[in-house]
Amino acid sequence: MSGIPGSASTALLTDRYELTMVAAALADGTAERRCVFEVFARRLPEGRRYGVVAGTGRLLAALADFRFGAAELDQLAGVVDATTLDWLSRYRFRGDIDGYPEGELYFPGSPILTVTGTFADAVVLETLVLSVLNHDSAIASAAARMVTAAGNRPLIEMGSRRTHEISAVAAARAAYLAGFEATSNLEAGRHYGIPTAGTAAHAFVLLHDDECDAFRSQVAALGSKTTLLVDTYDIRRGIENAVAVAGTELDSIRIDSGDLGVMAQQAREQLDALGAINTRIVVSGDLDEYAIASLRAEPADHYGVGTSVVTGSGAPTAGMVYKLVEVDGRPVAKRSAAKRSRGGRKSALRRHKPTGTAIEEVVYPHATPPPIGPNDRVLSVPLVRGGEPVAGLPTLEQGRDRLRAALVSVPWEGLKLSQGEPAIPTVFEGA
Amino acid sequence: MSGIPGSASTALLTDRYELTMVAAALADGTAERRCVFEVFARRLPEGRRYGVVAGTGRLLAALADFRFGAAELDQLAGVVDATTLDWLSRYRFRGDIDGYPEGELYFPGSPILTVTGTFADAVVLETLVLSVLNHDSAIASAAARMVTAAGNRPLIEMGSRRTHEISAVAAARAAYLAGFEATSNLEAGRHYGIPTAGTAAHAFVLLHDDECDAFRSQVAALGSKTTLLVDTYDIRRGIENAVAVAGTELDSIRIDSGDLGVMAQQAREQLDALGAINTRIVVSGDLDEYAIASLRAEPADHYGVGTSVVTGSGAPTAGMVYKLVEVDGRPVAKRSAAKRSRGGRKSALRRHKPTGTAIEEVVYPHATPPPIGPNDRVLSVPLVRGGEPVAGLPTLEQGRDRLRAALVSVPWEGLKLSQGEPAIPTVFEGA
Questions:
Q1: Is A204 helix (H, G, I), strand (E, B) or coil?
Q2: Which of B20, B207, B333 sits opposite A198 (nearest CB)?
Q3: Cβ-based contacts of A140 with chain B (< 8 Å)
Q4: Does the CB of A5 have a partner CB in chain B at under 8 Å?
Q5: Number of C-alpha atoms within 13 angstroms, CB side, residue A422?
Q6: Rounded CA separation B113/A193 (Å)
Q7: Among A214, B40, B57, B71, which is least packed, fewest CB within 10 Å?
Q8: What is the pLDDT of residues A317-346, one digit of tens each?
Q9: Which chain A residue shows the shortest CA-CA distance from B234?
Q10: DSSP class of residue B7?
Q11: Which one, of A154, A156, A56, lies nearest residue A398 by Cα?
């Protein structure tokens, strides 16, 4: 489960300083101090109005494989001393983790994940925790905006080729969590059970002596319930050929270039005139949330999205940090004029109007919750207890449902694509 | 070598449509047509003046594991027919690959990689090839600008937490290729032999009852040849404490917040006044190539770079495409008004002045090279022959040297950080 070449361990997906800190803390006796680390984002990406938590499921899987075996310890012989190597050889996380479940919205300062344990137990997880959450949440946050922009029209994630080959699998998962319908990525299909989609590229048409040959071959192999790519040569001719070959029962055509709005209109008219009134139009090619929104009035039935979703549409990382907030019950914080660092373990709830519209995110000291009203919702759930994942953790499908419901609760302004403030304010009680 | 949870194969890191195309081509007899696919970038990221090829070494490793075993074939049972499953079960790439070696510069239209083989053999590699090259080249291209901006001052890559946990390993490799000195990522140290660096975070200081305790502990564990992080509370006091604890032989201090230029100046004065004249200053915190350049006049000795390098500093993907350019000796190309698609297999050379300064990138039809002058350099090298990597492929260190030499050849305007045109024009001969 590691995703590491030649290794079943995730333990070296870690910054060197986590381990040198453990070495020094083991030597001076502070390694066993009870600590609380908190993951939060100081701000949302420029102009974004909400973030979407994603990656928790992947994180818990990676945590199970966070073990220092012989291969890892060999590598660390020059990094830390023998005592530390011995400690690492017996390492397994023994603490607790609480956090916002996948698909939950977050805002600046939301305590997205809380890791409780000894200093040494908890500090070594910093890099892995942040890598997973920062990546997956960045993708899901961008993808959710695309899903909103698309209204009821389905989105297919097809960006594997635009990102690292393994990130691509996680990106497909995050996009699916956010409401995409399918992915082009076969490994995401295998590993996460996400529906996969895809039929043919321009290369397939170019391979053949003419476009009709290619279409005939594709229909013979995949049936008329396929998607024919019609823009290799001339789109008008391509649609003519597609319907001639596949008949009016052709499932869809795909247009991957040109002015997609104009092309979709012309294609719809032509398809209808040819009697292919149920043949759908898939558009792809440099789509982002803004381009998707601009196509809402056009007869595009499906969107294929690549680069923009897997790169977070301008915000490729969520900017979450993992901060020590409590040592042996004492709140701690780096002194900082510009950055808001609030010591002490926190929890959060979200207040809503009776109509269900969210009003504010309330972050409060863990031990002293504010009065909870009938329309308030506590946001953290237990994820790990004594090092073991709790039973009945939310599934990917449940995360998808959670986000769908959460987006309905966002004040309408918060769903706008334009740059703005966070959809709801974060209020720090007792701060 | 796959990097896939629970799998030794890279074969499902693939878009579904590659396999449905294979299925149709096997059925219609075109699967064995001799094809040439070419990887190139239509343009550089907005305003960039050059790109850096990276990932080839990783790609060849992943290619060796591109096999469809029982687990992969199980997953594909609903995707393609029995004939195709059988073909996939015997798949290994049998063709040839040529390309720009790692560390080479590229420009719009440069034929970065050329894959020659049967259609079926070559088309299934599209997703993997692009994922690896687009990711790694994006990072290396951004990192090279940072190296240039830093002059002779060393850079440490510390961005693992800002990107997917496995991409982080590849990002460290690409940054090292581009001239970074070290990485925080331990897996990159293990897998690629890249020097690793890192000592302590703010959490380590906060863990202790006071800053001096933390510094004493660190020096006891790591020696005075360490880097003490001095900005947890008050920087001036932190530096005082650091020198008091470690002595004037302290290797370095690190400043991770505030106005780094001002802080570096003040720190230098203070260190010198304390007699720590050889203690170096490491600065980190939201550095990108522009911030690095702006610190050139300041007494910062080392730069730690995170988010901006692992996310490609605004260009997280290189935008390379994998296009079918030749079928059975016949040039092919998608018809396109806006995109430059040139059919036919190509090669390239770079022309230089006698002084060594590059003049232009010449892309020519494979079989008809233009006259090659004494200052011209052919850019592609054989990478794979008959499915096997050729002997003596360049190492990562050689790629690093290659880039260093290539950057010296760039006209001085091409090294400017400001937005501009590609450093040299690409000339298409016989196009």
A1: helix
A2: B20
A3: none
A4: yes
A5: 22
A6: 33
A7: B71
A8: 999 999 999 999 999 998 876 555 688 999
A9: A335
A10: B
A11: A56
- B115 touching A (Cβ < 8 Å): no
> For residues B77 and B12, what is the distance between their CA atoms, to the nearest angstrom?
13
- Residue pair B257/B283 in contact (Cβ under 8 Å)? The answer is no
Among A191, A222, A205, A215, which residue's Cα sits nearest to residue B80? A222
The answer to whether the pTM exceeds 0.90 is: yes
Binary contact (B165, A217; C-beta < 8 A):
no
The rounded Cα A280 to chain-centroid distance in angstroms is 28
Residues of chain A numbered 405-424 and touching chain B (CB < 8 Å):
none
Task: Report the residue count for chain B.
Answer: 431
Alpha-carbon dihedral angle through residues A165, A167, A168, A173, given to the nearest 10 degrees: 150
| H or E stretch covering A157 | strand A155-157
Task: Tell if the CB–CB gap between A119 and B28 is shorter than 8 Å.
Answer: no
Determine whether A340 is exposed, middle or buried from the number of CB atoms within 10 Å of its CB (0-12, 13-18, 19+): middle
Q: What is the strand order of the sheet A302-305 is part of?
A: A182-183, A155-157, A302-305, A280-284, A252-255, A227-229
List beta partners, residue B229: B254
* Interface contact A204, partner B, CB < 8 A: yes
Least CB-CB distance to A167: which of B126, B166, B184?
B166
On whether any CB of chain B is under 8 Å from the CB of A160, the answer is yes
Tokens 């690629």 sit at which residue? B192
Q: H-type helices in A235-323, by residue range?
A: 235-246, 260-273, 289-294, 307-310
CA dist., res. A272 & res. A259, Å (int): 20
Give the number of other Cβ atoms within 10 Å of residue A286's Cβ. 13
Question: Along chain B (431 residues), what's the average pLDDT of each consecutive run of 10 residues?
Answer: 60 98 98 98 96 98 96 94 98 98 98 98 98 98 98 97 98 98 98 97 97 98 96 97 97 95 97 98 97 96 98 97 97 76 90 97 91 94 97 96 97 94 94 58
B281 and chain A in contact, CB less than 8 A: no
Give the DSSP H or E segment for B171.
helix B167-177
Nearest to A19 by CA among B306, B179, B201, B364: B201
| DSSP-derived pairing of the beta strands A388-389 and A381-385 | antiparallel
Distance from CA of B373 to the nearest CA of A (A): 36
Please, what are the domains in chain A? 16-139+315-428 (3.20.140.10), 199-306 (3.20.20.70)
Amino acid at A97: I
DSSP H or E stretch at residue B147:
helix B126-150
* Beta carbons of A16 and B165 less than 8 Å apart: no
Task: Please indicate whether, in this complex, the C-beta atoms of A324 and B203 are within 8 angstroms of each other.
Answer: yes
Q: How far is B325 from chain A (nearest CA, A)?
A: 9
Contact A23 B127 (CB under 8 A): no
Q: How far is B414 from chain A (nearest CA, A)?
A: 25
Q: How far apart are CA A264 and CA A273, in angstroms?
A: 14
B232 vs A81, A165, A334: nearest CB = A334
User: Taking a C-beta distance cutoff of 8 angstroms, is the pair B409, B356 a contact?
Assistant: yes
DSSP bridge partners of B280: B252
Give A27-52 pLDDT, tens digit per residue.
Answer: 999 999 999 999 999 999 999 999 99
Q: What is the pLDDT of residues B225-282, one digit of tens each?
A: 999 999 999 999 999 999 999 999 999 999 999 899 999 999 999 999 999 999 999 9
Identify which of B164, B327, B335 has the shortest CB distance to residue A167.
B164
Give the number of beta-carbon pairs within 8 Å between A and B.
347
Question: Position of tokens 């043919």?
Answer: A200
Rounded to 10 deg, the angle between the A56-64 and A126-150 helix axes is: 150
pLDDT in tens, B107-161: 999 999 999 999 999 999 999 999 999 999 999 999 999 999 999 999 999 999 9
